[in-house]
Design goal:
Length: about 425
RNA sequence: GCUGGAGUCGUCUAGUGGCAAUGACAAGAGACUGUAAAUCUCUCGCGCUUCGCGCUUCGUAGGUUCGAGUCCUACCUCCAGCA
């Protein structure tokens, strides 16, 4: 596979902060023997690397599946693995509403609970909470009502960290505030509060780390290596390190001065990586990422939050130094019948596909394209069969995962520019 | 054959004298980016120069009325009950 056999000449030094040192590591090893992120190749701001998590490695750039409520909608975790996904991202807001972080902790953590035996992320819940209709924001945190039953909740930087700790994903996002509007003043205010909250997140995260890594170490790590009942080939990693990682979130909207300020602030903090938040369109994304990723330390991974519905997001994101992506778009659009092809998205429900017996995408090797025709998919959608959403989700998720994998390969082969040009000119023609 | 009921946009349906006529489904198209999304929006009698205008429509044919899907008469068809 790609990246294997490549010399790791630019491997950064391992992190040696106090909190990390307090954690337990396998006998005979030092913490620094297990760098969280290694870079195998650089190409301008772009890089090819590996994120090492307790549940296995993520070869980057990588597309992370959106598993908001601890499931990728319409797909089983086995299907996610088979279509090539390396990691999933769940959402703290949704999981504290149901089933609750205590229950997930009781279940052994997100990976064990969901049966996703690979790397996991959680988003802090900030994005969702600030999207709710009546949310009260104070310096302490955000008060909101459950959209399900009206129960009152308050989420603070500390509570988000604790809930993420209980949920037990490998990588946690700091609790950030989204701006009320696109104005510079609102963006700046939200950014500064996000920075103040980041400090509190870091403090709380260290307290939790110092507590000894709860469900990942108390009964033996609930990781691949400690799950002997699972088939060997189903395991992602073998390294049961009881660590959890914290990403700071860079804000600043469309304003590059704010982005730069936010990046500088986050860069100065003792965190393991960075989320880049509040990005809603690819327009101007290249300049913004150039600004941010030129400032962020290059030896820590960067996650572009919420972007990846449009293939150009993945190309631009990777080109300008982002390592991982997550987006609900591919699976949401799949459920709504909008399917990726190399020639752009098609709506499989359109009448013209009724008698199209060709595969959705002839050169695609996903389960959907290998076995079923456009006419069959059209039929399943028109008759509202559940399988329509399953097959479509397999294809769309496979598509973005594969495109991101191909971006990684092209960076390794020094063919990124050609790949980008040929892909985008065909897709957006 | 008698008695009662019913015929409305592809389908089911609202409508009990006042604007081509309600809702659902079907059909056609569009949207979707850290998932309140198995969701949402638009079109849906015909035509046009489409923020409007014209034409034709509620089983068929007449009638009453300024005006009828709606009231009256006949006929056709279907359903139920009785012969």
């Amino acid at each position: 596979m790609l990246g294997n056999g490549k010399s790791d000449t630019m491997c950064p030094k391992g992190h040696k902060d106090l909190a990390r040192a307090a954690r337990s590591v396998p006998e005979g090893h030092a913490v620094s023997d297990f760098p969280f992120f290694t870079i195998n190749k650089r190409c301008g701001l772009a890089r090819v690397g590996v994120i090492h998590t307790p549940h296995g490695d993520i070869k980057t750039p990588a597309f992370v599946g959106a598993a908001t409520r601890a499931t990728v909608k319409a797909l089983t975790m086995r299907q996610m693995r088979e279509l090539g996904s390396q990691a999933i991202l769940a959402n703290t807001y949704h999981l504290i509403l149901a089933p609750g972080s205590d229950l997930i902790e009781q279940a052994g953590g997100l990976a064990e609970f969901s049966s996703w035996h690979g790397p996991t992320f959680t988003d802090s819940g900030g994005f969702q909470i600030f999207s709710l209709p009546d949310v009260k924001i104070t310096e302490n945190g955000a008060k909101f009502k459950s959209h399900i039953n009206g129960d009152k909740f308050e989420m603070t930087p500390e509570s988000s960290m604790r809930d993420q700790w209980k949920i037990g994903a490998d990588i946690h996002m700091a609790f950030d505030q989204l701006a009320k509007s696109d104005s510079h003043a609102d963006m700046e205010a939200a950014m500064h509060r996000t920075h103040r909250w980041l400090d509190r997140c870091i403090t709380e995260h260290k307290v939790l780390l110092g507590a000894g890594g709860r469900n990942l170490s108390s009964e033996g790590p609930k990781t691949w290596a400690s799950a002997p009942e699972r088939p060997e080939e189903d395991r992602f990693g073998q390294d049961p390190r009881p660590e959890q990682y914290l990403y700071a979130v860079v804000q600043g909207g469309i304003f590059n001065d704010l982005r730069a300020e936010s990046a500088r602030y986050c860069a100065s903090k003792d965190v393991d990586g960075f989320g880049i938040g509040g990005v809603f369109t690819a327009d101007g994304m290249d300049e913004m990422l150039k600004t941010v990723n030129s400032i962020l330390p290059e030896n820590k991974p960067r996650h572009l939050l919420g972007m990846g519905q449009e293939p150009i997001d993945l190309f631009v994101g990777a080109e300008y130094g982002c390592d991982t992506f997550d987006c609900v778009g591919p699976t949401r659009m799949a459920r709504n019948g909008s399917l990726y092809t190399y020639d752009g998205r098609i709506n499989i429900k359109n009448a013209k596909y009724k008698t199209d017996f060709s595969p959705l995408m002839p050169d695609c090797d996903c389960e959907c394209c290998k076995n079923y025709s456009r006419a069959y998919l059209h039929h399943l959608f028109k008759t509202d069969e559940i399988t329509a959403k399953v097959l479509a989700s397999i294809h769309n998720e496979h598509f973005v995962v594969t495109v991101t994998d191909n971006i990684r390969k092209s960076l390794l082969n020094d063919t990124f520019e050609e790949y980008k040009k040929s892909f985008l000119s065909r897709y957006y023609k």
